[in-house]
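Take a sample.
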Amino acid sequence: MYWQNIPTEPGGTYPATARDSATLLGTLAVPRDSAEIRQSDQVRREATGEVYQVLGPAQWDQVHPMTGWDTGYKTYSVKAVS
């Protein structure tokens, strides 16, 4: 799992609109031949015990249409739920 860039204001501070709440979004990359993950499934990060909800279908689950490059992985957008 890796984290997407978090938007910041000039100087590297968090936006003033994020004072009272925050949403942690990330990207889960899994080998293409792994078990099927569906939208709304929940996954747990073993290292921390945090639970994330899958927000949509797999992305990048095909070879590149112009170059034929195959990453061997597919990615899912996830959101922390606890």
